Amino acid sequence: MKKVFNPRLMLISSMAIFGTLGLFVRNIPVSSGELALYRAVLAALLIAVFLLVTKQKIPFSKIKKEVPSLLASGVAMGINWILLFEAYKYTTVSVATLSYYFAPVIVTVVCPFLFKEKLTKKQILCFVMSTVGLVLITGIGDVGGGKDFVGILFGLGAAVFYSTVILLNKFIKNVEGIHRTFLQFLAAIITLLPYVLLTSGVTLGTLGGLGWINLLIVGLIHTGVTYCMYFSSLKELPGQKAAILSYIDPLVAVLISVTVLGETMTLWQIIGGVLILGFTLWNEISPRSEK
């Protein structure tokens, strides 16, 4: 059977859509926890329909041992979303996104301890230079006061939990990408529902037309449709090409922040962002010189 979709175009499209997330989140006047819950619910419903239409069954009998890791990663995903949405509220979309993209650096540093992988000189250099980039974003120049710094901390917190999702996924061997994401969304819903009920409560009734439109776009398009596109394309593309194309996401986010939202970045923040993205990308795509 011929492929209907070009996997490279699907990955480019999904990354570009991910990059516009902050623009729509800004127009949804609910708490971060509530927004994360609705995002998970809408995406889970859409992926459930996708699995039914494509007649894909989840092999529960084969994944019993991996259920704890799936549940834990779903919990981490939900917390990750909450912190990222909080970062958008306190600082610019560009700075929040660049702080969030420190996650690959965290994974690089933690992997040697969890999986006994050797940390190469190249990886050490990438870690050091990416950290310098983070320092430039947070500690030099005019970052807009304490509120801006709080946003950066939320972005870093989101990076920690996103790296947790990545690391937990390394323990999940027998679950396909789309099935894994669906189960993670369900775990996120189970976690987020009591949190929302105990904190902000359900405030959907306060959303106006614009809020509803943006919420549906974030839940169905940015999460449901885009995750399906993302995982479908990853099956067909080499790892290096996927790594390169994944950096379309932060680049689009920065462009949206500056050109559409009118948010500014200092020269030091721009240099810091280049260091973070440049060295994390180099770390991912460079061929290993050591086994």
Structure description:
The protein has helices spanning 7-19, 21-25, 32-53, 67-90, 93-100, 103-115, 121-139, 146-169, 177-198, 209-234, 239-245, 248-260, 267-285. It has 291 residues and is an all-alpha fold. The protein has one domain (7-285). α1 packs across α12 (248-260), α3 packs across α4 and α5 (93-100) packs parallel to α8 (146-169). The N and C termini lie far apart (38 Å). The mean pLDDT is 84.
Order of helices and strands: HHHHHHHHHHHHH
Q: Number of helical segments?
A: 13
Helix content: over 70%
Shape from CA axes?
globular
Number of domains: 1
Distance between the termini: 38 Å
The assigned structural class equals: mainly alpha
Mean pLDDT, rounded to whole units? 84
Strand content: under 5%
Sheet having the most strands? none
Number of strands: 0
Whole-number radius of gyration? 19 Å
Contiguous low-pLDDT stretches (5 residues minimum) are none
Looking at this protein, list some descriptive labels.
291 residues, mainly alpha, 13 helices, 74% helix
Layout: helices, strands, pairs:
Blueprint: H1 7-19, H2 21-25, H3 32-53, H4 67-90, H5 93-100, H6 103-115, H7 121-139, H8 146-169, H9 177-198, H10 209-234, H11 239-245, H12 248-260, H13 267-285
Summed up:
The chain is mainly α. The chain contains 13 helices and no strands.
